[in-house]
Every structure is written in structure tokens, then in C-alpha cells.
Design goal:
By secondary structure, the chain is of the alpha+beta class. 22% of the residues lie in helices and 25% in strands.
Length: 118
């Protein structure tokens, strides 16, 4: 049956993540279910901090650390001049910031993408 465990009559089989290392986080144990029905896991970061994260976000690499930005600053994406020009043109056309961020791998910082002038 692999690395799955049965969580009771009202729950389906859940992948057991205890002991797994996901980026900077080590999974300590199961925490609870969130409002959407996702299982959450208690994790310890390499810096010693702790956080609770959804299992699928850990597995997909969306959650990578405890979130303490003093210790784990966001990595800025280096853009070429050509990419910066493309972004400025897209902003001018009204392309949503979220689309631009996803296309160019830019973090969610609002300071990296200029606001469209009105």
C-alpha cells in the first residue's frame, strides 16, 4: 500500500508525509484539515522556525520555507531589457499583473511590475 495511511471511517487514504523534506521544510506530523478539506501538516524549517502548510502545496514546491523574510528573503528574478520592455508594453495594454507575474516567473511583489498609467 506504500506510504499511505487510513485516517478513519470518514476520511479517505492520505499520503503520509511525516519525515519528508520539502525544500527547507521537514514534515513533523499531520495537523488538521482546512476549510477546503485539504490536509495540513506541521513542518520545521531549516532555520528552526515552524509553520503549518497544506500537503499539496508542499509536494508541488509552492511552500518552501517558514515564511520569515528576514531569514529567507524572496529571490528576485533578473529580467533582460527585452523582457522589461515586453512587460511595460503588456502593462500598457492592461494585461493583468497576475498573468505577467506567472509568465515571467516574477514574485508577487507589486514593486517589480510597473502600474499602468491612466
Amino acid at each position: 500500500m506504500g506510504n499511505y495511511k487510513n485516517l478513519g471511517a470518514d476520511a479517505r487514504m492520505v499520503f503520509n508525509m511525516v519525515g519528508q523534506v520539502c525544500a527547507e521544510l521537514t514534515v513533523l506530523g499531520q495537523h488538521s484539515r482546512d476549510a477546503d478539506g485539504h490536509w495540513t501538516w506541521k513542518c520545521r524549517c531549516s532555520c528552526g522556525g515552524e509553520r503549518v502548510a497544506k500537503g499539496h502545496l508542499l509536494r508541488y514546491g509552492t511552500v518552501k520555507d517558514c515564511g520569515n523574510r528576514a531569514i529567507h528573503p524572496l529571490k528576485r528574478t533578473k529580467l533582460t531589457e527585452e523582457q522589461e520592455a515586453e512587460i511595460a508594453e503588456k502593462v500598457g495594454r492592461g494585461v493583468p499583473r497576475q498573468v505577467i507575474q506567472k509568465t515571467y516567473g516574477i514574485s508577487a511583489s507589486p514593486f517589480e511590475i510597473p502600474r499602468a498609467s491612466k
